[in-house]
Amino acid sequence: MSNSTFVYVTYIKTTPERLWSALTDRDFTRQYWLGAHCESDWKPGSSWKLSFEDGRVADSGEIVEADPPRRLAIKWRNQWSPELNAEGYSLCTFEIETVPGDNSDAVKLSVIHSIDRPESAFIKAVSGGWPRILSNLKSLLETGSVVLPKKA
Amino acid sequence: MNVDHFKPLTFYTIYIASTPEKVWQALTSAEFSRKYLFRKCGRDRSEGRRRVTPDGALHINGEVAECVPYRKLAFTFNVNWPELVEKLGPTLVTYEIEKAGDTVRLHHERIT
């Protein structure tokens, strides 16, 4: 049986440490995550959650791997849609690499989000969200402001 | 050109703080595209230094299949590396530009 995977790669003018912090700092995530924010202590086995501003939990799960500032893997399950929740846990991996070459000050961020089922509605849903969130993250780190405001 | 036989292979969407007009110009102006095409990303790839050659030699060519200024651009994309066109066959690239509030959603499809 095949799985469903979303892959997004973006190059950001920043350092691996700043990008790691942007992915894991609760208050920083609030700035680009379209009105939600992430919380965890970012250690393998720790719980992880993504909450809306009113406190409702959007998604939750567990840290599978955390190797700052290089690699982060989260076991991730939707909590607000019964249909998406029923698909069970997905795995979301963040890889941060420096770009080799002279005078390069860019970092390559790869986000790989997959679930062990074909034609997943969950992966379809995150495929619309990730480009928004990661465009916001890139713009915020490079220019100091996001491109898309919080959801109304 | 009939492009119905192409099947989507990869998608990429990015939101840019810009206007459709500026994004269109960035995609279609030779002068502007020289600033971002393959300057950095191409350098360290293991497959070699195959990028747009500064001497103007043909690197990738194709034919415009659809052109709606500020909205949509589709073109065939043939990479002129030895034997690659034969191996891959022709591919199609489509750009779609949409306004998203004050920003622009640039959607890029590579189709084979």
Key words describing this protein structure:
heterodimer; A: 152 residues; alpha+beta; seven-stranded antiparallel sheet; globular; B: 112 residues; six-stranded antiparallel sheet; 38% strand
Describe, in short, the structure shown.
The complex is a heterodimer of chains A (152) and B (112). By secondary structure, chain A is α+β, with helices and mostly antiparallel strands.
Please, how many helices of chain A? Answer: 4
- N-to-C terminal Cα separation of chain A, in Å? 39 Å
Helix content of chain A: 25-40%
- The sequence of SSEs of chain B as H and E is EHHEEEHEE
Annotation, overall tally of beta strands of chain B: 6
Which structural class should the secondary elements of chain B be placed in?
alpha+beta
Instruction: Compute the average pLDDT of chain A.
Output: 95
- Helix-and-strand structural type of chain A: alpha+beta
Instruction: Give the amount of beta strand of chain B, in percent.
Output: 35-45%
Basic shape of chain B: globular
SSE series of chain A: EHHEEEEHEEH
How much is the average pLDDT of chain B? 75
Order of strands, widest sheet of chain A: 1-7-6-5-4-3-2
- Beta-strand content estimate of chain A: 35-45%
What is Rg of chain A? 15 Å
Cα-based radius of gyration of chain B, to the nearest Å:
15 Å
Describe the main β-sheet of chain B briefly.
6 strands, antiparallel
| Main beta-sheet strand count, sense and barrel state of chain A | 7 strands, antiparallel
Per DSSP E runs of 2 or more residues, the count of β-strands of chain A stands at 7
